[in-house]
Amino acid sequence: MSTILFDKAVFGPVRSRRLGISLGINLLPPDGKVCSFDCLYCECGFNRRGAASALPTREEVAGQLESALARMAEAGERPDVITFAGNGEPTLHKCFAEIMRDTVGLRDKLAPGAKVCVLTNATRLGDPKVVDGLCLTDEAILKIDSGLESTVAALDRPAAGYSLDEVVERIYALRGRLGKALTIQTMFVSWTDDEGVEHDNSREEDVAPWLGILRRLAPPRLMIYTIDRETPLKTMAKTPPAVLDAIAVRAREIVPEVSVSY
After folding, report:
1. What is the Cα–Cα distance from 163 to 150, expressed in whole angstroms?
2. β strands within 41-121, DSSP E
């Protein structure tokens, strides 16, 4: 399997289907994915087994970001967004909140107008420092891949102790602080597991409770998408455009802004 791992703390810019021209920030090790999920579809592959290299320091991230933004400015370029993504879950970094503050300051200095976004699986919302960091973003993109805990367990393979209900309630509690920055993101796929059982999170048994979560959270934005790159699990398949569009029609009755990426 071909995986995509980022060997620097700051990478790109890359063109994102959902975000435009994105300068990425990777707060995880360069030699393997480290995440509180181990998604079957992750382009970075499965989680690293065994010891990984050290995480980049706060100073390293700030230095690389300043250099990258300065180079883009000299070339007459400017990112649409500075995106925390990379080789796993960015909020696992112990200095996440401090790095967020550094990033916002550098953005204001060198790339005014660019958004700062965080892609997160929302597993760290119980940490007040992580919440403080997320509240500095222009867009906090929080993952909910199904309304069924059993599907989240099978598809996203969260670390022990994960509770979908708990995550939803923590997002709900955070809505006031995030305001318009809150975005929910959902990956729709089908796959066959190692026992030959077929799964599809675009089925009604997943979508109906997922819509209930959207009603509960009332986010200003929703991103619906499907796989676009090679995945660790070879049986993973794209959800057809017509199915994504049908789900989006229902979601637009709840969420003001819904984007679909095929």
Report:
1. 10
2. 81-85, 115-120
pLDDT digits (tens, 9 = 90+) for 175-201: 999 999 999 999 999 999 989 999 999
For residues 228 and 261, the answer to whether their CB atoms sit within 8 Å is yes
Domain containing 195 equals 10-261
CB 90 within 8 A of CB 55: no
Instruction: Please state the pTM of the whole predicted model.
Output: 0.93
Amino acid at 180: K
Q: Which residues pair with 118 in a beta bridge?
A: 84, 140
235 near 191, Cβ under 8 Å?
Answer: yes
- Neighbouring CB atoms inside 10 A of 163's CB total 13
**Residue 45 belongs to a domain:** yes
**Alpha-carbon span 158 to 242, nearest angstrom:** 29
**What is the domain-level CATH number for residue 132?**
3.20.20.70
- 49 occurs within a structural domain: yes
Residue linked to tokens 């989680």: 47
Q: Which whole-number Å values give the CA distances from 210 to 67, 146, 258, in the listed order?
A: 42, 6, 14
* Residue 4 is assigned to a structural domain of this protein: no
Query: What single DSSP character describes residue 106?
Result: H
